[in-house]
Write a structure and sequence with these properties.
heterodimer, A: 400 residues, alpha/beta, Rossmann fold, five-stranded parallel beta sheet, two-stranded antiparallel ribbon, B: 271 residues, 9 strands
Chain lengths: 400, 271
């Protein structure tokens, strides 16, 4: 049974499981699709796809498999009644389709099909099933439904729906794809992944330990004996280093959103935010304006923020080669005798977990972006999208 | 699906897709998971389904502290302890201190009910996983009394989510999924008319125009939703605002736009 669709979905990157597939078969058996392609589209989508971010992929797969089965237009009520045959769910029987198509290899020319369709729509005045000329069910002309012809005009089935291909054609779920660049709320959700609960912190015992209290009270013959414990707190400490250089200006809104979400996420034990211009050198700035003097020593940061900090560096990694490799390459402030590349390696050596988020990362290898390729060799780099941020957060949380 | 099919009710307009999702979920006996922008009527859907099918609605509101166990049953040990200390009758009968949660209530009901699990994503990440067995088999076991509570009639389960957290795959696989699209203008008109059947045509059209314009503004932070438009139209009606000055004066715009920055944007954008 139309397993091609199953594999097309898989190829498009949809994680459809066998149990969901069987549920769809169950729905077909129960006649929930009423042998209408459009109805089938919705039923298949609601069962197989569990996130609006994947609707677009589903649409693409659906179009690939069922292309050419077009929506109804200018069809009389009578004709729809002749074509309304829910019992002929043969549309989905690949074999029959195959057999029907073998009889006559039809070259599909869209204009030609449409013209013939209109012509016959005008002339036809009775019901036809299984023929090869008129519009009807089970036939092998390009018209009608439940037929073997895959490159023709589809007529009828359930009405009242926005046709499957009208939906797909509009690609209205494109914006929901999760490889898109993100907004504030989604940032916050992604940041919530950075959690590591611990009770081994140096804080006072302020919470009632109910279980132990009950045990002790019982052992005490029913007289209340209260036990306190330390609250479970998130032990994750976060350091955010943001590029605030000229090439980052187009992303300032995105940077602002990220900053806001880190600020709003009050579940971290500690958060430090510093800025740099193009690349990290001996000074880090306290404000995004990166003004001379309003800074701290990078080495001071190494001394005062221990290696447990999870570090997120955000930048486009689009430095000029001399900004990265020359030890006098920093035109805004002091270099401290080291090149930017060496400073980045110091960061890597000092902190156990560092990721680089890049709002305009090139997909795959991009040797023409010299600096980006060099930075990728030092830090794992992710694109600043929902998916990228989630992957980065997982990278920050796993032990090696 | 003879007499059990769900259709739009007097006060709830559902799109054809949504109707199909509800009916498929009922036919396949699977929970229906509803996602969508805030204010698109996710929670109201359950009420509408219950009304349309003439069934009782049980609502389980999920909060960040809710545990799966809360929905099944609670064993009121404190009450039992008190009763024990004061020598009340029947302390040895544990069943007296077992109180069923919302899920348990739905299972024990004598007739089929509609169970709404509202905002499931508010709870802990593991919450949906803890309910897999219960929602699949429609039964659970009370350890204290060694009793199995089994659904007398499989409830129609509707689950809403604001997508604050990703739901676990194992859970998603068992659900029928529907994403409530933001209504287009034709559907929006129908929705407004179900709420205010005698709304003045001109007022409604102008308000909708302004509303969609606001939503289309690129730098708006919180897009207004259906429920906000409905509130706004209500406010405009009560205030007796004339339709012509809507765009220039933006009366009661605070109902639609909630953030200070957005208010500025909207005022500048409408000029």
């Amino acid at each position: 049974m139309f397993s091609k669709f199953f594999y097309t979905l898989k190829n498009k990157g949809l994680d459809v499981t066998l149990s969901e597939w069987l549920t769809l078969q169950d729905a077909l058996d129960k006649g929930l699709c009423e042998s209408s392609l459009t109805q089938f589209y919705y039923v298949a989508r609601m069962i197989l796809v569990k996130s609006e971010t994947e609707f677009d992929k589903f649409d693409m797969a659906f179009e690939e498999c069922f292309k050419g089965i077009m929506s109804e237009n200018e069809v009389g009520k009578n004709m729809l009644a002749w074509l309304d045959k829910p019992e002929m769910s043969a549309l989905l029987h690949e074999e029959e389709k195959h057999w029907l198509n073998q009889i006559e290899e039809i070259h599909v020319d869209k204009d030609d099909v449409e013209e013939k369709f209109k012509e016959r729509l005008k002339d036809q005045n009775e019901e036809h099933n299984g023929g090869s000329f008129w519009i009807g069910t089970m036939g092998k002309t390009q018209f009608g439904n439940t037929g073997g012809n895959v490159g023709g005009v589809r007529v009828g089935g359930a009405t009242g729906y926005q046709s499957a291909f009208a939906v797909i054609g509009a690609r209205k779920y494109k914006d929901f794809r999760d490889d898109r660049v993100i907004d504030n709320r989604q940032f916050q959700t992604a940041l919530r992944r950075l959690r590591q609960f611990s009770t081994k912190l140096d804080i006072p015992k302020t919470e009632l330990d109910i279980d132990t209290t009950i045990d002790k009270t019982c052992n005490n013959g029913g007289y209340l004996q209260i036990e306190m414990m330390r609250p479970r707190k998130n032990a994750v400490k976060l350091m955010l280093l943001m590029d605030s250089g000229g090439t980052m200006i187009p992303y300032s809104r995105l940077m602002n959103d990220l900053f806001q979400s880190v600020n709003k996420s009050n579940h971290f034990k500690d958060v430090k935010v510093y800025y740099f211009h193009n690349c990290i050198y001996s000074k880090l700035y306290k404000t995004p304006e990166c003004e001379n003097g309003d800074w701290i020593d990078t080495e001071w940061l190494f001394r005062n923020a221990d290696s447990d900090y999870k570090v997120i560096i955000v930048g486009d990694a689009a430095m000029a080669p001399e900004e990265l490799y020359s030890d006098t390459g920093n035109y805004r402030g002091p270099n401290g005798g080291l090149s930017g590349y060496q400073w980045l390696q110091l960061v890597k050596r000092h902190y156990k977990k560092v990721v680089w988020m890049n709002p305009k990362m090139a997909p795959g290898r991009a040797p023409w972006r010299e600096a980006e390729t060099a930075v990728k060799e030092i830090f794992p780099m992710y694109k600043l999208t929902v998916k990228g941020l989630n992957d980065a957060m997982i990278k920050l949380m796993v032990n090696k | 699906m003879v007499n059990t099919a769900f259709s739009s009710t007097q006060d709830y307009v559902a799109s054809e897709e949504l109707l199909a999702s509800v009916n498929v979920a009922i036919a396949l006996k699977k929970p229906l998971l509803i996602k969508g922008e805030p204010g698109t009527g996710k929670t109201m859907l359950a009420q509408a389904v219950a009304n349309s099918l003439g069934k009782r609605l049980i609502i389980w509101n999920v909060k960040s502290t809710t545990k799966a166990q809360d929905g099944l049953y609670m064993y009121d040990t404190i009450q039992r302890l008190y009763d024990g200390q004061f020598g009340e009758e029947g302390v040895d009968d544990i069943a007296r201190y077992i109180k069923l949660g919302k899920l348990g209530e739905a299972f024990e009901s004598e007739e089929q009910v509609v169970l709404l699990i509202d905002e499931i994503d508010k709870a802990d990440l593991e919450f949906p996983n803890d309910l897999l067995w219960e929602l699949d088999q429609m039964e659970f076991y009370i350890h204290e009394t060694k009793r199995t509570v089994k659904a007398k009639h499989r409830p129609i389960v509707i689950i809403t989510s604001n997508a604050e957290k990703e739901l676990p795959d194992a859970f998603l696989r068992r659900c029928i999924f529907h994403y409530i699209d933001f209504p287009d203008e034709a559907l929006m008109e129908e929705i407004i008319k179900t709420h205010y059947p005698d709304v003045e045509e001109n007022l409604m059209r102008n308000a909708m125009q302004v509303f969609y314009d606001i939503r289309a503004m690129r730098d708006i932070r919180k897009k207004p939703s259906t429920s906000e438009l409905i509130d706004w139209i209500n406010a405009l009606q009560i205030g007796g605002i004339s339709a012509d000055t809507l765009r220039e004066k933006l009366p009661f715009v605070g109902v639609v736009v909630k953030k200070d920055e957005d208010l500025e944007t909207v005022k500048n954008g409408m000029k």
